[in-house]
Specification:
It is a single chain. It is globular, with a radius of gyration of 21 Å. The chain starts with 12 loop residues before the first helix and ends with a strand. Strand 26 and strand 27 (457-465) form a beta hairpin. It has 5 helices and 31 strands. It has 510 residues and is mainly beta.
């Protein structure tokens, strides 16, 4: 079986919309659901293939999935579970992943944060043809770099991602881990529009909103004054009108009380891998009675762990944190954003021997808490050194005015945005400036980058990521990377409604 990888030119606007989709969520179906994905376990172990290549089979198909008792949806899943099977791969081993599409519509898989060959990147019309219903596609690559990655659909992404086509991908290092642990759990966070509850407040300000402000240059008193002058109605119009009414929040595909408790033993170091698979919402993760030590940003290790009270995570970001299990009892791990815990985004953390203890209920809000920020971390030098020219690109992010679904880069919508052209080995610096009312988690395919500066403040030791939140209201971010992976790579906002509205450009590495 061969992978029919195709390198194509940019799609027309009409072709892109057909490929990436503007459709809403599928119907909510009230029927029996499936079981939860157990944290830290793989549902697709794979087997040795020809030439020592490890083979893994994935099937995309429709499912009826129970988020919680009485909340059953018609979704899409890999191998019948939401999230899909956790793939644990070894750095540098060769894997062959066979996707069978049993959906009634096309799909693809993007290996988020993995430096795959361009033909394996899963972007329809750019790196491959969409995988038609009943067809298969073979993805083959050597997984790099190590760390917490994930995989998800890149076809009609807003609709298919919202319906469950995502899963963790963990690349284990060939050598020792820089932050030893005794036990680990993978926690995938998501938002759902089911029509069964009250819609949750927007988190459109991203990490800035998670800290209680509007961010950018318009933060603080000026931002709050502007928000008050506009009022809730105008604020919604200014923020774009295409946001679904998300009303259920899940951890590993389940809303509390259906979420699977996490068991720990006193004295353990527990690693939590946090993945935000939401299409729209920022989550602020907190554990009652404990502080969290951030060790990795988007899978990339810090020089030292940074202790905080809670961790804001925007769509597509990942954070690894260490928990020192030193307060025996029962505690809730939850999202502190208003309404999220009540909507299901909470899970019990139970110490062995304390299974009958009662946990204190989650506390909304972040007042008085020390929250993770990009400038708290000190990153390691893990990117390849440049060997070519220095190139600088200025990208202004705009759109969403008066309920518009138009989102632009330098006043253009994809496929009319100007590509970023560079050669292999070049040092590329991108300066983002956000002139819109919403934050944009900007994601680069094919290679990771350093975050050099945020809102005009240079980071002392740049952290390494593949998604970065550019705050609303004139927020800015400067990133830098070595263009080491040739091909045409998407650079886009990872809120699918913004991506589908045009906030995409191509990084073309010759």
């Amino acid at each position: 079986m061969e992978a029919a990888a195709v390198t194509g030119s940019a799609l027309s606007r009409r072709e892109f919309l057909r490929a990436s989709g503007q459709a809403g969520l599928g119907a909510v179906a009230l029927a029996a659901g499936g079981g939860a994905l157990l944290p830290g376990r793989s549902g697709a172990t794979g087997h040795p293939g020809s030439g020592g290549v490890r083979e893994i089979s994935l099937e995309a198909r429709e499912v009826r999935w129970e988020l919680a008792p009485g909340k059953v949806i018609k979704g899409m899943a890999y191998n019948g579970q939401i999230p899909g099977p956790e793939l644990r791969l070894r750095e540098g081993e060769r894997v062959r992943i066979v996707l069978k599409n049993s959906l009634p519509e096309p799909t693809t898989i993007h290996w988020h944060g993995v430096d795959v060959p361009n033909s394996m990147d899963g972007v329809p019309g750019i790196t491959q043809k969409p995988v038609a219903p009943g067809q298969t596609f073979v993805y083959e690559f050597e997984p790099r770099p190590t760390g917490t990655r994930w995989y998800h659909t890149h076809f009609q992404e807003h609709r298919q991602l919202d319906l469950g086509l995502y899963a963790p991908l963990l690349i284990e290092p060939a050598g020792p881990d820089p932050f030893p642990f005794d036990r680990e759990y993978t926690l995938v966070l998501d938002d759902w529009a089911t029509g069964t509850g009250r819609p949750l407040p927007s988190t459109r300000e991203g990490t800035a909103g998670g800290r209680g402000g509007m961010g950018g240059m318009m933060g603080g008193g000026m931002g709050r004054m502007m928000e008050g002058m506009m009022g809730r109605g105008m604020g919604g119009m200014m923020g774009g009108g295409q946001h679904p009414a998300y009303d259920v929040m899940t951890i590993n595909g389940k809303a509390f009380p259906a979420s699977q408790p996490l068991t720990v033993r006193e004295g353990e170091r527990v690693r939590l891998r946090l993945i935000n698979a939401s299409a729209d919402h920022t989550h602020v993760i907190r554990l009652g009675g404990h502080r969290l030590r951030v060790t990795h940003t988007d899978g990339n290790p810090l020089l030292q762990a940074m202790e905080v009270d809670a961790v804001p995570i925007v769509p597509s970001e990942r954070y690894d944190v260490l928990l020192a299990a030193d307060r025996p009892g029962a505690w809730f791990l939850y999202c502190a954003e208003p309404g999220h815990a009540v909507a299901g985004e909470q899970v019990l953390v139970l110490y062995e021997g304390h299974e009958r203890d009662r946990a204190e209920p989650p506390v909304e809000g972040v007042a008085g808490l020390t929250l993770w920020r990009y400038d708290l971390g000190r990153g390691r030098e893990v990117l390849p050194p440049p060997s070519g020219q220095e190139r600088t690109f200025d990208l202004t992010l705009s759109g969403g005015m008066m309920g518009s679904e138009v989102w632009t880069i330098n006043d253009e919508r994809y496929p009319h945005t100007e590509p970023l052209r560079m050669r292999k080995g070049d040092r590329a610096r991108i300066r983002f400036r956000n002139m819109s009312m919403e934050a944009h988690p900007m994601h680069l395919h094919g290679q990771s980058f350093k975050v050099l500066a945020v809102n005009g403040q240079r980071l002392a030791a740049p952290i390494v990521k593949d998604s970065v939140d550019v705050e609303a209201h004139m927020g800015s971010v400067v990133i830098e990377f070595t263009a080491h992976n040739p091909g045409d790579w998407f650079l886009h906002c990872h809120k699918p409604m913004h991506m589908e509205g045009g906030m995409i450009t191509l990084a073309k590495i010759a």
